[in-house]
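Project outcomes to date are best conveyed with an example. Our students and postdoctoral researchers have been running inverse folding experiments weekly, and each run begins with a structure described purely in tokens. The record below, which covers 251 residues, was selected by the lab manager from last quarter's runs and is presented without edits.
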């Protein structure tokens, strides 16, 4: 069932989003060679507790961590681990914050140490894909408009768009209808309406868009070893255009 959120619910989610964004900005300071994603995960759990929040995905379907930490060819749902990161790694940290019942979801890809030109281009195209999708998240548009904007841009730049994982509705639970594919046809799909809250979270690959699942039945990675990047925001559909709840720009 698709729900449209009240102004009170949106305000609660907005506070969760601000906290999540501030946490990502702190993670950026820590993402250096030698650090482990397990250390990042422990930092996130402590940071949220300090601010009266909890990591919503911990315990979700048995998931054990506060974050997902996906490295290089891992597309999503990577487990935090004790393996030190090295210069040139890319790491996507994805988390859902629950603050007083309000939820927000955001993923961000970080470079460890120095990025070469190829890495910078992957990350920039992925980030641009996110915002091109958000531009289409408007009252009266259709879900296909979001996916088409992302797919047409990313593929024109020589990258591929993961199809096995999508954005989704959010609040009061992590994953709700509707699904938000990052590929598709303009003018097709469910019509977006004011008050809907969704995530837009394109996963962009260097090579094939296809994924394969690790033996842990959580972590998805590319089939060809190409790297994958992801940026995600939680977005409200409003009469005045999309409102990003997890923006880091105003902090």
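After processing, the design step wrote out the following sequence:
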């Amino acid at each position: 069932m698709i729900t449209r959120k009240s102004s009170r619910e949106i305000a609660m989610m907005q506070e969760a989003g601000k906290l999540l964004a501030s946490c990502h900005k702190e993670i950026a300071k820590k993402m250096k060679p030698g650090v482990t994603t397990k250390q990042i995960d422990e930092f996130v759990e402590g940071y949220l507790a300090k601010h009266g929040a909890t990591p919503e995905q911990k315990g979700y379907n048995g998931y054990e961590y506060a974050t997902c930490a996906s490295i290089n060819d891992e597309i999503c749902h990577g487990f935090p681990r004790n393996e030190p990161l090295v210069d040139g790694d890319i790491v996507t940290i994805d988390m859902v914050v629950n603050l007083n019942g309000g939820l927000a979801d955001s993923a961000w890809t970080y470079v460890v140490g120095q990025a070469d030109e190829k890495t910078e281009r992957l990350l920039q195209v992925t980030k641009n894909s996110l915002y091109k999708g958000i531009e289409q998240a408007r009252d009266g548009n259709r879900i296909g408009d979001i996916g088409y904007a992302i797919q047409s841009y990313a593929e024109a730049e020589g990258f591929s768009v993961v199809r096995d994982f999508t954005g989704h509705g959010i609040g009061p639970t992590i994953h709700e209808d509707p699904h938000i594919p990052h590929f598709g046809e303009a003018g097709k799909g469910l019509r977006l309406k004011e008050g809907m809250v969704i995530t837009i979270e394109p996963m962009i690959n260097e090579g094939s868009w296809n994924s394969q699942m690790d033996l842990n039945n959580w972590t998805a990675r590319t089939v060809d070893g190409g790297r994958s990047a992801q940026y995600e925001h939680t977005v409200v559909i409003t009469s005045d255009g999309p409102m990003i709840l997890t923006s880091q720009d105003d902090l």
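The chain has a mean pLDDT of 97. Residues 7-244 form a domain with the Creatine Amidinohydrolase fold (CATH 3.90.230.10). The training component of this project remains on track.
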